[in-house]
Task: structure prediction
Amino acid sequence: MAVIISPARQQRLVALARAALFAQVRGKAAPRPPDDLDVPVSGAFVTVYAADRLRGCLGYVGRRERLGLAIARLAAEVAYRDVRFDPLRPHELSHVELDLSLLTDPEPVVDVAEIVVGRDGLIVEHGPHRGLLLPQVAVEHGWDRETFLARTCEKAGLACDAWQNGATILRFEAIVFGTRSRK
Result:
């Protein structure tokens, strides 16, 4: 079941995320989110691009948080905490675009044929290893179902065929909106 959130709330969440991100990069206090932006979701991610290049993506899944606070926190943290990237710099702000992904509860995959590329995001778990890829990642890279599964395994630090060898596979849906997703 997909997350439902009004276009007006989507715009306000994007504005909140942008304000929190800009405040962090400029060394200023983050804005306080209004209480009416708290809607029930099982997870959220903030993805940031600068000059059409991925510059960070952070989020959470599987727990309930006040959405407005979570979005403001994630947007501020993505500016410097995604270890794959150098921290964002003030000169990049004029080229920043961001997307928010609001997630449904993950559910176990019984048959991989159930996975729909473009609709489902994936989580692969095995022992202490866990990898997650948002639904839009497979579409952006033109992956088929098997490639999506293999890349999620790799994100978890597992062999690309771990999904066929005892790893647990979960799927979730996400509503994605923001300044980049409108393109």
About this structure: The mean pLDDT is 92. The first strand starts at residue 43 and ends at 50. The chain has two domains: 7-103, 107-173. Residues 118 and 139 are 6 Å apart (CA to CA).
